[in-house]
Each structure stands twice: as C-alpha cells, then as structure tokens.
Amino acid sequence: MSSLILLLLSTAITAAVASIPAYPSVSTDCTVSAADDNPVPVRREVYGDGRIFDISHRYTVDMPSWGSKDGLGQFLWLPSSMKNGSRSNNSLMKLQSVHSGTHVDAPGHMVDSYFDAGFDVDTLDLDVLNGKHPTRQSPLLDLLSFIVIK
C-alpha cells in the first residue's frame, strides 16, 4: 500500500514540476532556417517584476587583473570547433585571477568565519544586488558616493 502511495505522490510531484516553465514563454518562432546565416538570440532576463540588465564589462586581454601588470592576457580558447571537424564547439576559459572585470566577492572572501561557514556568492540575496540605479552618467567618484550613501 505504501508503495502505491509513494508512486502516486512522485507522479503528482513530477506533473506539478513539469507544468512550471523554467523559462519565460517565447511568443515568436525560435526555429532557425538554413537561410538564416546570422541568428541572434533574444535575451530574456527577468527578476521579480523587473528586468535584469547585465552591466558587466567585456572581458579583453588587456583588462586589468589583480596581481598582473600586463592585464588579463589570453583567457579564451576554442579547443574543439565544428569548423575543424569536431562534433561540437567547446570553449575553454581560464583566468589568472577571478579579480578581473565586473564581479562580486563572496561574503567569506574577507571574513574567515563566513568562509568556514560556507558563505559564498550563492548565499547572497539578489535583492541586495538589484535595486534602484542612477539614471544619469556620472563620474566614478559620484557613482561611488551614490553606492556608499545608498
């Protein structure tokens, strides 16, 4: 009897989870025709009632990097390429330091007890990282003042 209840319960949970979309529904046709040489993906980042705008800086070889006077250097390779006969495109990214470009330090980065307790970036509340933003172009010092005051 308990096996039957377990089976029914797992079936109900599977059906409920399957009905929840992992991504927002797409109102357009996402197929790529053979004639479409340059398909462009549509980014749909949504959080709460608003959209998420990625303000990360583009990674470049000369981007400043902690501990390097020469910058980031080569960081991206394509060891497998369909253009060279591979079955798939596989990229490889290696950073000399994670202190490159736009990033968020984990709470445990500077507080040892947080590190020991496992406070990493996955433990940050997105409400802390998302919010109102300045709507004018500002010099860096103005922006830093805004962040400190906020």
Automatic annotation (TrEMBL):
It holds the Pfam family Cyclase. The keyword Thylakoid does not apply. Its main location: secreted. Keywords: Extracellular matrix, Secreted, Signal. InterPro entries: KFase/CYL, KFase_sf. GO terms for biological process: L-tryptophan catabolic process to kynurenine. It is found in: Secreted, Extracellular space, Extracellular matrix. The keyword Secreted applies. GO terms for molecular function: arylformamidase activity. Transmembrane segments: none annotated. Residues 1-18 form the signal peptide. Belongs to the Cyclase 1 superfamily. This is Cyclase family protein. It comes from Gossypium barbadense. The lineage of its organism: Eukaryota, Viridiplantae, Streptophyta, Embryophyta, Tracheophyta.
